[in-house]
Amino acid sequence: MGLRPARSERKIERPWTRFSTKKTKSYVPTSPTPKIHQFNMGEQNPSYDIVLDLVAKHPAQIRDNALEASRIVAQKFLETKLLKSYFFKVLLYPHQIIREKPIAQGAGADRYSTGMKLSFGKPVRRAVQIRRGQSLFRLQTFKSNIVVAKQALKKSSLKLTIPTRIIVTQ
């Protein structure tokens, strides 16, 4: 089954993070591994004099594959333009587990789809629940690189499902 549109999983619901570590075939199976692989990129240097944060304008739930896509876009852009004179950090970890109940098609599908009561579906992927004003990414660099840093964060925000803004602190 293909990936459902992000608008179907954008709304914040009750956090569902419980899973079984011992029994993989139980009613509450194990959680899927998060798609995001790196959280710290670049060179950590205490002499960076400017910090840029990508901040959410609205509360939402962002899937881990969208977070990974925006991280990759920003990192590749920064690597080509700034080489190693930056430090880029993903501030959130995808704890929320998204579950899907497969939708049946074909003959007899209505009998299958009505199915058992409280069938919550299988854990398919993970997501990050973000509040209004919370930072997703942090980028540290020198003042001379501020234009490139803003471009990188702008490119990465295009991969996300919510409107964001860039906050610059010194």
Features:
170 residues, alpha+beta, five-stranded antiparallel β-sheet, three-stranded antiparallel β-sheet, 3 helices, elongated
Structural overview:
- Helix 1 (64-82) runs antiparallel to helix 3 (146-157).
- It is elongated, with a radius of gyration of 19 Å.
- It is 22% helix and 27% strand.
- The protein is an alpha+beta fold and 170 residues long.
Secondary structure blueprint with pairings:
Blueprint: E1 40-42, E2 50-56, E3 60-63, H1 64-82, E4 86-90, E5 96-100, H2 109-114, E6 122-130, E7 135-141, H3 146-157, E8 164-169
Helix pairs in contact: 1-3
Can I get a quick summary?
By secondary structure, the chain is an alpha+beta fold. 22% of the residues lie in helices and 27% in strands. It contains 3 helices and 8 strands.
